[in-house]
Amino acid sequence: xxxxxxxxxxxxxEIVRAARMNLAPGPWDYLVGGTExxxxxxxxxxALDSVGFRPRVLRDVGRVDSGGTWLGQPVRLPVxxxxxxxxxxxxxxxxxxxxxxxxxxxxxxxxxSACNPGLEATAQAAENHRIxxxxxxxxxxxxxxxVRRSRDHGYxxxxxxxxxxxxxxxxxxxxxxxxxxxxxxxxGLEYQRSLxxxxxxxxxxxxxxxxxxxxxxxxxEDARMAVEHGADVVYVSNHGGRQLDGAEPTIRALPRVxxxxxxxxxILVDGGVRRGTDVVKALALGARAALVAMRPPFLxxxxxxxxxxxxxxxxxxxxxxxxxxxxxxxxxxxxxxxDLALEVKDRTGQPSSRRRSSTIRRSSSSxxxxxxxxx
Length: 375
Hints:
about 375 residues, alpha/beta, TIM Barrel, 8-stranded parallel beta sheet, 15 helices, globular
C-alpha cells in the first residue's frame, strides 16, 4: 500500500488535491478557513513568502543533520504537529492517527483537549513524544486534574492556550452551517475568558516540574510577562488566522519575541508553515521548532491515511535538508537572522508571494476553495 502511495503522490499538490476530493464541504472549509475576512490567514503566508535566503557556497555540505532535541528527547526534525481541534472531522482515527504518524516519523505531537479520541486513548495509540494542550473549561481543580492525567499518560509538557477568550466569527463555517462536535455541548467557557497571569503563576507554583507552554503569545511585551511568571516555553501564534482578524503575521512577531526572551526560554511558532523552507526561516528567526497545523498541505493528509501523514512529513524533512545543503549550513540546520533577507520585493514593489507553489483559491463556480498551482 505504501509503495502505491509513494508512486501516486510525488508532490504536496497531489496530496492536497486528493484530500479535497475526500472531504465534505463543511470540514474542508473549516480546515482551510480563517476568521472574518481571513486577513490574518493571508498575512501569515505572505510574510513567510517575503523572507528570502542569503545562501553561502563552498561550505562542505556533504553531511546534513536535521535532528535535535525537545524537552530532553531526540527529534528527527525541528517540527511538531500542532494541537488541532476536531481533528476527527478529517479522519475517523482523529488524534490517534496523528499520534501514529508523529511516532513513525520521530517528531512530537501536541494534542488538543478539543478533539477525539481524547488524552488517554491517544496516548495508547502510539509511543510518541507528546505534549498536552488545554482549553480551560473549569476551575483550578479541573486544570490540576488534566495535569495529573497528562503526566500519568506520558505527556512531557503542558500547554495552555491563551488567545481564545472568545470563539471567533469563522464565516466559512457559518455559511456552511458547520458546527464542530465539541461546540455543540461545550460548557465552562467562562473559565477561558477569565484567564490571567495569576493562573500562570499558580500553575508553576503548583506544578514546578511540569514544563509549561503558553500558546498564543504574539508580542514581545507578553513574552516578557511569560518569562516573569515562570513559563518554560512561549508559543508564538495567532491561532493560524482563526481568532483575531487583522493580526500581525507570526513570522514578523517572532524576532521581537526572541529578542525579548533572550534565551531564557524556548520558542515555538506556527502560522502558515507548509514546507521545509518555512521551517528553516523560523529557526533562523529564533524558534526552536515550527508547528504545522490546519493548513494544506499538512492536515489534509489525514483525510487519506496514516502512510500519507508520514509521507507529507517526509516531504517536509527533504525540503528542510535540501535547503540546508543549498544554504551551506551543514551538518546542522544552524542559521541566524543575518542569513535572511527579511523583506524581499517582487516586480511590483510589493512583498513577494509564492509564484510557483501551493495556493488555495476560490472557484468561480463555488464558494468552496479549491487547490491550484499558480504560474
